[in-house]
What does this fold into?
Amino acid sequence: MTDKERFHAIMNFEPCDRLLYWEQGFWGGTVERWYREGMPRKHGVEGAPAFGDTVRGPATPIAQGDKICHDIRESAGLDKPSLRVPVELYLSPPFEGEMLEETEDQVTMRDTFGIVKRMPKAKDSVPHFLSWPVSDWSDFERIAAERLDPDAPGRFPSDWQAQVERLNRYDGVVAIGGHPCGFFGSARYLMGEIALLMGFLETPELVRAIINHLADLWAAIYSRVFSEVKVDCIHIWEDMSFKNGPLISPALFEQFIVPAYRKVTDVAKSHGVDVILVDTDGNCHSLIPLFMQGGVTGLYPFEVQAGMDVRQIREDFPNLQILGGIDKKELAGGQEQIDAELERRLPGMVSKGGFIPMGDHQIPPDVSWENYLYYRRRLAQLSVLE
It folds into this structure.
């Protein structure tokens, strides 16, 4: 079977030869460590990642300019990378990145999303956010007109037809979406997390207008893409939960966000794109029924430290596609610790289908190359399809 065929068999809970060998990603510092510990350097790393940058794994769709390391894939036996349809789904044109202030160890800048932030040059901790593009209706109306127009001339690459042919020949997974595109995720990038959360209660019509505009934007772009490209799945980025639960109530999610999901997923499914995956960290258990109500078919990465147990999720939602769920922290221990973690997560999951085991987020730099190889080898041995 090709990786494409294997992906659809797994997502449809159908028999196939084996599971996909996927990973969501790795820290830049992880890749540096693995090279020091003997990982063969045949290709090197594309994109020159800093220590805290994400190096994409095969589960995360890649586009030109992304940070990737084919040496990990080849040496650890991972499958082909997912390819991302090279269409701009968010701001077009983007903001012009601008350095506002610089010290010995920090920079203050406006990024291409229009967010002003102060961050360490080493990228070894999270940035401190200072301002966002939308603070009121006038800001939103200006950005909607100038940067969120589905017909903006820069959304599709100049060699679009060549890209269509390339993607339609690919026997791996072809996907669209992902960071920064999500109804909560993108709205948070426009308003800032606190303003968005307060906005659900204090300026609900502005929040609803932003979410609805995003739904119309993506529905329009997807309609064109799906008429030309054989897309295997959509990725939607929604970092909207923390350790103890979601950042908004299920009631607000149902009221504001489910209708937007339905608009986009209805378009996708009308074109035969029937795998809709959401990337959301933290404990999102209470939102899963509403994601599914909105047409979502699967989620990842199911963070163990947030209480997300994939075996319990499978019991609660038998038809949900599950990707992830292996506690990345346990991979830093010895072989016995890795074996114990896999024994906690895998029994009963493989034979039921709809499951791609992988780390519950980017693999961190405290995981040795020896441990990672052992984990992938054991995962392959324990993932034999019955």
DSSP finds 14 helices and 15 strands in the chain. The longest strand covers residues 98-102.
